[in-house]
Amino acid sequence: MDTESANRGFSARGLGKRYVQTEVLVDFGLDVRPGEIVALLGENGAGKSTVSSIIAGVIQPDSGHMTWRGRPYAPAAPGDAIAAGIGLIHQEIRLLPDLSIAENVFVGRLPVRNGVVDREKINSAAGRQLRRLGLDAPPSCPVRMLRVAAQQQVEIAKALCLRSKLLILDEPTAALGADETDRLFSQIRRLREDGVSFIYISHRLDEIPLIADRVLVLRDGRLVSQHDNAQTPVHVLVKEMVGRNMDRIFPERDAPQNDVALSVKNLTAADGTFKNVSFSVRRGEIIGIAGIVGAGRTELMRAISGADSIATGTIKVDGKVVRMAGPRDAVRAGIVLVPEDRKLQGLILDHTLANNIAAGNFDIFARNGWAWPGKIHDFAHSAILRVGVKGGPDQRVGELSGGNQQKTVIARWVSRSPRVFILDEPTRGIDVGARAAIYDMIAGLARAGAAIVLVSSDLDEVLGMSHRTLVLSRGRQRAILEGTEANHETVINLATT
Fold first, then answer.
1. Which of 2, 393, 464, 488 could form a disulfide with 354 if both were Cys (CB 3.0 to 4.6 A apart)?
2. Which CATH number fits domain 3-242: 3.30.420.40, 3.40.50.300, 2.60.120.10, 3.10.50.40?
């Protein structure tokens, strides 16, 4: 990059960060021109979040320096970055659930008129951004009423309303479907035309050539490659990220057994989000659920697992009708759910692996209401070894990578030998190397005789892992496609009609 462009944009040189004996970032440099989109790629733990946190003032570097728009830049806190025109959209949703959408968008800078919050102004401004992003929800709606994908769009609207000149997007599409992603990309391109710069972090490598101008790859805290053209083949990027070839990401699928483990007949949600859905899953079979955001995929999974109420229909496990007043009844019947948001719905981040794995399983090893620490430790240790979690029973779950956190949720259930595993967005926010391990684990569960229901916004994932694919559109079942029938074009046509 020429000196004049660097002075007008963002520049970092020699950034380093160490935690005790671990170097998480080493001699990192980055330039971003005005109106440029730079993709920053790497596995979980490669240093991407450290870079974004330093630029956004969340953490302080141990070495190096930065410039922004021709001046030295050293934010001591996130507020300094925001005041300078630099915003960060976190991968983890950080909204206040009891406030409205508009209040969340303007939190910390609510406009006041005559001594009270100007709600007309915040509702109008937030509504404009929500419409641009395709979110059909009133600005006055409490955030806790929204699903994860909609909450992610609120996070994005919040950053866009800051009128930042440099936006760091950390996995902004992880919870979004194809339509929502297209709307976001259109908004990014419009902002780029106005001179806004972007640092774009994503594990969805197929997005990179669609939105980025240049690509930087991190591995083990070090910059290992730079590409001036974002059209770099995916297999090249993957090899640079993980340091090895990964020619086969999806494992071979074994033929399922004949026995039907799960049968769903004419299921209709109490709130009407899906109607008259029917399908069955055999032991050893993986059935994928495809559809755009709002199709009713997560709502269907929550109903089958007892988390949400149904109006009509039946659920059978091994031919027996299951009557559910809540998730406990589903677990006892052999149905377990790995939810779409592992951090909010699946884990207690401040607790140990042992406590997280024991949760929901005290009926297995607790006697007379007592759960001895040694029993909890041994139970968790066995599950950790079986699933391959990289962490010990006494380690805090919040310290684990995204892939190992997801394995921890799965580890909770494997010792119960459930008949049915429901996996909602099993690789959301997980890098390509960890994804392969999760896929192998899912295939192993099926091979052991479990019936698997897999929901994902990543259509490649659904098609690559599933024996059959059920397509939902606006809460209606459109088709169940056999393996050879399911392809991108067919699924997308069904999902959007």
1. 393
2. 3.40.50.300
